Amino acid sequence: MKEVRVGICGLGTVGGGTFNVLARNASLIAGRAGCVIRTVRVATRTWRDDIDLGDIPFSTDVMDVVNDPDVDVVVELIGGYETARELVLAAINKGKHVVTANKALIAVHGNEIFEAAGKAGVVVAYEAGVAGGIPVIKAIREGMAANRIDWLAGIINGTGNYILTEMRKGRPFNEVLQEAQDLGYAEADPTFDVEGVDAAHKLTIMASASFGVPLQFDRAYTEGISRLTPYDIAHAEMLGYRVKHLGIARRREGGIELRVHPTLVPQSHLIAQVDGVLNAILVDGDAVGQTMYYGPGAGDEATGSAVIADIVDVARNIQAGGQGRVPYLGFGPDSIEDLEVLPMEFTQSAYYLRIQAMDRPGVLAKVASILSEHGINIESIMQKESEVFDGKIPVIILTHTVQERQVNLAIEDLEALDEVDDQVIRIRAENFN
């Protein structure tokens, strides 16, 4: 049986999981790949006593893997931006195929990397960079190849989903974040998770695969969950919604929406039931309709499973003489669409608005008048006399779908009212109709 030789760069959580699964399931993987897949070199900055490398050569310089003539496939699992970019481009220049789990690398430098891969005639595979063990990129690129994808939306950061799940119990954000850090779900610096940067990386990649557009991470709108309160989460529940931190990409006339933010989702929808650290992605195609992909979005062997699936694909490509998958997100150069990311003010959504208003006659009429002036229709309104405090009462409004710029203008006018105290709280809502 033929042999494809792999070099692993990085032996952290994902690298260790990848190495262990490759070793444990070697015969099963060989049967599915049609060839033996053998790890022939490993490089990592930190030695791991819990992993038995046997006689596999080991070094602390990841470029040793790239420069090893015995390596056919370089597996980049070191993370980060610049060192990973240099590593991947060096591997491509040496004619080696690349598998990576690095969503930040692909989202930010992917256009450059795929152009280089196309010229060199090698494959760059990145399934593990999005949603861990969930094979959503393969589903989009292969399973939905016949579909015009109109939109996708997903819970694509497990840390944020865990925090929002716990906040439904009335717990404050800071308390739950500390617990997530203690449990190892959140990093010491949790910014990428709780402010939506990690989700925006993943959404950028999925949008590119779905719509055939270049990667445009710098155009993605990103809003985190750190300012959400248990009060708004509870009142969203009273309205029949659950708050989830979603990445949403939607095809519109003239461009695409690309946005990450807290979102009200109907409690009856499947994605509203996804709790804890799990991920879920909805994809809507014109032929198949809505499909959902659900499972662990991180973890050593879960993500390693996706890494190895890509290695198997590359091995099949090698055996086919390099005539397999096109190394640009599954699209040939003639199918790349020139769709720009729309500015956030031109996106469309429904809205949850919370207004802290004086408890006086006529205030609701003024609020309704301002919304009407800006073309905003009210779906429902909630006001509880039991919540009057210091002469003020929260007014909660759910609107119909409207353009963001209309809501921005309405909020400016609402906050200018003498009867309105403090800022208007805004959370977008999606019904996925």
What does this structure look like?
- Its EC number is 1.1.1.3.
- Pathway: Amino-acid biosynthesis; L-methionine biosynthesis via de novo pathway; L-homoserine from L-aspartate: step 3/3; Amino-acid biosynthesis; L-threonine biosynthesis; L-threonine from L-aspartate: step 3/5.
- Pfam families: ACT (PF01842), Homoserine_dh (PF00742), NAD_binding_3 (PF03447).
- This protein is α/β, with parallel strands linked by helices and 433 residues long.
- The chain folds into three domains: 167 residues, NAD(P)-binding Rossmann-like Domain (Rossmann fold, 3-Layer(aba) Sandwich), CATH 3.40.50.720; 153 residues, Dihydrodipicolinate Reductase, domain 2; 82 residues, ACT domain (Alpha-Beta Plaits), CATH 3.30.70.260.
- Helix content is 36%, strand content 26%.
- Strands 7, 8, 9, 10, 11, 12, 13, 14, 15, 16 and 17 form an eleven-stranded mixed beta sheet that branches.
- A hairpin with a 2-residue loop joins strand 9 and strand 10.
- The longest helix has 20 residues.
- The radius of gyration is 24 Å and the shape is elongated.
Helix fraction bin: 25-40%
Total beta strands? 17
Instruction: Quickly count the helices.
Output: 14
Gross morphology is: elongated
Please identify which CATH superfamily of the largest domain we are dealing with. NAD(P)-binding Rossmann-like Domain
Query: What is the beta-strand fraction?
Result: 25-35%
pLDDT under 50 segments (min length 5)? 324-334
**CATH top level class name of the largest domain:** Alpha Beta
How far is it from the N-terminal to the C-terminal residue, by CA? 50 Å
Query: What can be said about the biggest beta sheet?
Result: 11 strands, mixed
